[in-house]
Structure formats: structure tokens, C-alpha cells
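Aim 2 progress update. The chain analyzed this quarter is reproduced below.
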Amino acid sequence: MDLNLPPKVTDRAFARLAEINDGGDTKVLRVAVEGGGCSGFQYEITLDKVAEGDLVIEGAGQKVVVDEVSLPFLSNAVIDFSDELIGARFVIDNPNATSSCGCGTSFSM
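Predicted C-alpha cells:
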């Protein structure tokens, strides 16, 4: 596992963030990893602002940020947006995860 590769953000995720920010205060999408969940770690995805030390990924006039502590857990991950019958949400395809739960928000390494 190469912990030096930044996560990638799809055009679809940037487009959805642009829709969220349309006509309001521009927020960044913060993707973090915290201890907990049914598999050991869980993703926390929130609208926030850039903080010191964040990795900032830009596209389509939007920003996605990852804090320094979460960055090794998200190395080479892909942040996407999924809009399916079961719901619409930001999703993470994480090659570092050895297993994940059925809901997709919890994983182990």
C-alpha cells in the first residue's frame, strides 16, 4: 500500500458538490476517517471549510478536502457520487480497505 498517493475525486462528485453549492455559501466537501463503525473505521463526509493542513483537491470550481490524519487511510481512494434507487450519496472506493460493511460507510484495514 503506497500511502503517498492522494485520493482522486470524480467529475460526478464535483458536479454534485457544485449543485449543492449553487446559490448559497460555497462549502467544501470534507472527507475524513474516524475510528468506529462496525468494521473499525468509518467515513465522515460533511460540508465544511478549508482548515490549515488540509489536502485540497480542486475541480469544476469546487473543493474537496482531506485532513492530515485521514490522508493515509484514503491514499489512492476514489471519491464519487452515486445516485441509485436506494439513494443518492457520496461514496468512496478505497483500495486500502481489506473489508467493509454492507452500508459502505465502515471499513477495516
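The beta strands are 8-9, 28-35, 41-48, 55-59, 62-66, 78-84, 87-93, 99-100, 106-108. The two ends are 11 Å apart (CA to CA). These observations will guide the mutagenesis experiments scheduled for the next reporting period.
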